[in-house]
Design brief:
heterodimer; A: alpha+beta; Arc Repressor Mutant, subunit A; Glutaredoxin; 2 domains; 7 helices; B: alpha/beta; Rossmann fold; five-stranded mixed sheet; 20 strands; 40% helix
């Protein structure tokens, strides 16, 4: 919370156009936006917390639960869709028994579907904690997931 | 590494940009030659590091190159450039040895680095990964290596905005200036009044490149003629069309060009503050823009009293938190003001009353990138390219099933056939061309019969299509049109802001109808069966209502894929509805599975897994699937260890 207060202090004044940058900064530091954070921001900007929450839920960027230790992002752009990212998504959901935007029970994996990361020549594309994997197929996906599972065991 | 190139050059650059090239002293010419890489004193290794390259493993290649140089104790300079435009060849690595032409190689993953550099440093060019060499009269060309501009991919293009992409160092303002950059901005503030700038841009006939096709100069004039104490310019880099990445590539590969365009545009309308509204996912582009703005400020090109002209300009980057609708002008303004990105009714147009109720001009990255060239070479030069009413060039991002995926810049008026077959090399794996989707998820699906249509705002409207931002998705015979339309509708439904009913409800209903026709009915008597048959009829009327009554462009165009595909690919819809057949074999839920009695061992695995209880049999005897019960989920196909299950 100390850190969040520090971030808020960087945005003096009650101007509403700071709201999105504040939320982005906090998410970058904290990983997600919690209820307490929404209340803190609303007090800082003098806005109703419903307004802050309403805005945050409107945009795709903001998360309200803590992401897993390994955050899986799968691109669902047109090109990736054509080249079978649905199959990958199905497989991830089955392997880890999570849905989009959820965290697995052990807190290790979370899944996010992106609209397009713009690497259409390499599709289908996914990333785990910022490490990209291109031209992924089902076999490779299983290898990748197993690699992270093994990593966790050791 | 390069000691003689990096001394504090900002002061020097300030002088350079203000001088006429004929006034350059010998010393100055010398330094500029070094800066523009016409002459290099040590080997130069350029690695493309756009997002596509990073995804393909450019970071690992970079590490391998660094290790190689340290290992062999070779002095060389490494530069991370933007993308050349051929995404499927990433990571692209180029080498320029002193006195020799620069050569580019494709698909250089980390393990290929050592053999490649071994060859190049021994003055031989390996054949397998070569793309081509760059023509430069000051360099000795390599023997038997094709020139980049002679390759079919580049030969048929007219690269204006993309000219330096992948060639220059995006982090170096010096290189941009040495190649003639920022001269247009200096020319603008020294030579022209605000109004003259608007005039030149209007006369050039430049039209907004984000889809609307409105005359840029006219928009500027409207803002210029509105009196206000503060005006704003917004550069729209919220490129959220899936499958469009031209803005990102320009921002990553040549950020100074965009900044110069913004600076001239801001001067033209009299704005002293400019915003770049960019997608927060574009981390690489944001980094490079921040760096570019900083170095431009240090060189005195941005900031207070620029080159003693009395003109001030600040550029601020605002990260868009991700909403497709924010590409729409009024929604973007709302988002910048810290509100939900919902569109508003027009008028008042943003040029009259926009951000914080002040006159605001919003231009797309590509539009702004054209401005420096227009100011530098004049409006007549610009209108030499393209066709009547549609001047200049347009960038297309081509992806999907084309042989070459990447960025293509062609003069307006080029035919779709020439773009797809001459430049992008036709279809991957020699499959048959089926259709091309132009203009992103709210664009139209164009069948092969219309391939000779010229790309211009009017010609495309005539065949019921839109130019959009220039995303081009090529589909082959293995792509199911219904599945693609379903995907687009699903996307639009998620991205609809929910303000007006036709868009919010319409997209959802359409999505449901498409979902219904691309899977088998649960049973023949239920309501879904009726819905299924009403599907096509309802789709058509729903689409026209949405088109007529939605508030903003998103809703008005959301039904475009449906309308165009119903027009050109009606038989595919009918096959899905009446025959439950998907000719591309993509809609898996329409498949019917069968068991091959010869191969089935009766292990009962499939029967246990079947969610619809459609598989019956006795253990150790062949099983069978009840066709009417099968929902086509394919689970049995996946679990069968004896490949005894097949589908039709």
């Amino acid at each position: 919370m100390e850190k969040i207060k520090q971030i808020l202090d960087q945005y003096p004044g009650m101007s509403r156009d700071n709201l999105i940058p504040i939320l982005q900064d906090i998410q970058d530091n904290n990983g997600y936006i919690s209820e307490d954070i929404v209340n803190l921001i609303s007090r800082h900007l003098g806005l109703a917390s419903s307004k802050v929450y309403g805005l945050a839920t409107f945009y795709n960027q903001f998360r309200f639960i803590s992401p897993g230790k390994y955050h899986i992002q799968v691109c669902n752009g047109t090109s990736c869709h054509m080249k079978g990212c649905d199959i990958l998504l199905k497989e991830i959901r089955r392997l880890l028994s999570i849905e989009d935007g959820e965290v697995s029970r052990d807190g290790l994996f979370s899944l996010e579907v992106l609209s397009c990361i713009g690497a259409c020549g390499q599709s289908p594309v996914m990333s785990i904690n910022g490490e990209y994997y291109n031209n992924v197929n089902k076999k490779r996906l299983i290898e990748i997931i197993n690699f992270y599972k093994e990593l966790e065991k050791t | 590494m390069p000691a003689e190139r990096e001394p504090d050059i900002t002061e020097f650059l300030r002088e350079v940009v203000q001088l006429d090239p004929v006034e350059y002293s010998r010393d100055l010419k010398n330094t500029l030659e070094l800066l523009s890489r016409d002459r290099v004193t040590q080997a130069l290794i350029l690695l493309s590091s756009g997002t596509a390259a990073i995804v393909a493993g450019a970071e690992r290649t970079l590490q391998a190159v660094t290790d190689y140089l340290i290992d062999r104790n070779i002095r060389a300079e490494i530069i991370r450039t933007g993308c050349l435009g051929i995404c499927n060849l990433e990571p692209v690595l180029s080498v320029q040895l002193p006195g020799r032409s620069r050569v580019s190689f494709g698909n250089i993953t980390q393990e290929k680095v050592t053999p490649l550099l071994d060859d190049v440093f021994h003055n031989s060019i390996p054949d397998d990964s070569i793309i081509g060499q760059y023509r430069n009269p000051k360099h000795d060309a390599w023997f038997d290596v094709p020139f980049i501009e002679d390759l079919p991919f580049f030969k048929n293009q007219e690269r204006i905005v993309l000219r330096d992409n992948g060639i220059i160092d995006p982090s170096s303002i010096g290189e941009y200036i040495a190649r003639g950059g920022y001269r247009s901005f200096i020319k603008a503030i020294r030579k022209y009044t605000y109004e003259e700038i608007c005039d030149i841009v209007e006369k050039s006939g430049l039209r907004g490149r984000s889809g609307s096709g409105y005359l840029t100069g006219k928009k500027w004039k409207a803002a210029y003629h509105t009196s206000a104490d503060q005006k704003y310019l917004i550069c729209n880099a919220e490129e959220s069309d899936p499958g469009a990445f031209m803005d990102r590539t320009v921002l990553e590969g040549n950020p100074h060009l965009v900044i110069e365009g913004i600076a001239i545009a801001s001067y033209g309308i009299g704005a002293t503050k400019a915003f770049i509204y960019i997608r927060s996912e574009y981390i690489e582009a944001i980094k490079r823009l921040e760096n570019a703005i900083k170095s431009a400020q240090e060189a005195g090109i941005l900031g207070h009293n620029i080159f003693s002209s009395g003109y001030n300009l600040d550029i601020v980057i605002k990260k868009g938190p991700g909403a497709f609708v924010c590409g729409e002008e009024t929604a973007l303004i709302n988002s910048l003001e810290g509100k939900r990105g919902m569109p508003q009714t027009k008028p008042p147009y943003p040029a009259i009353q926009g951000l914080f109720k002040k006159p605001t001009v919003i231009n797309n990255v590509e539009t702004l990138s054209n401005i420096p060239f227009i100011i530098n070479k004049g409006y007549k030069w610009f209108s030499e390219t393209g066709i009547e009413g549609n001047y200049g060039s347009k960038i297309f991002s081509i992806s999907g099933k084309a042989k070459i995926t990447g960025l293509i810049e062609v003069p307006m008026g080029t035919t779709l056939r020439s773009i797809i077959f001459d430049i992008a090399g036709g279809m991957e794996n020699n499959k048959e061309f089926k259709a091309v989707q132009l203009g992103g998820p709210s664009g139209c699906i164009i069948p092969s019969g219309y391939l000779d249509t010229k790309v211009s705002f009017e010609a495309l409207t005539e065949i019921g299509a839109v130019l959009g931002s220039g995303g081009m998705i090529v589909m082959d015979e293995d792509t199911c049109i219904v599945d693609m339309v379903k995907y687009y509708m699903d996307f639009m439904q998620k991205q609809s802001c929910g303000k007006c009913i036709p868009c919010r409800e319409g997209t959802r209903r359409m999505s449901e109808i498409l979902e219904n026709i691309s899977r088998k009915p649960v049973d023949e008597n239920s309501h879904t069966t009726l819905e299924r048959f009403k599907g096509v009829m309802q789709l058509e009327s729903l689409a026209s209502v949405m088109k007529d009554t939605s508030l903003c462009g998103l809703g008005k165009t959301a039904a475009n894929p449906v309308i165009s595909s119903l027009k050109h690919f009606r038989e595919e819809y009918e096959e899905h509805i009446f025959d439950r057949y998907c000719r591309a074999n993509v809609c898996t839920e329409l498949r019917t599975y069968y068991i091959n009695v010869e191969l089935c061992t009766g292990c009962s695995m499939c029967a246990k897994k079947c969610p619809a209880d459609a598989i019956f049999g006795t253990p150790r005897h062949p099983y069978f699937i009840v066709e009417d019960k099968c929902t086509g989920c394919g689970l049995c196909f996946e679990v069968c260890k004896f490949s005894a299950i097949f589908y039709k």
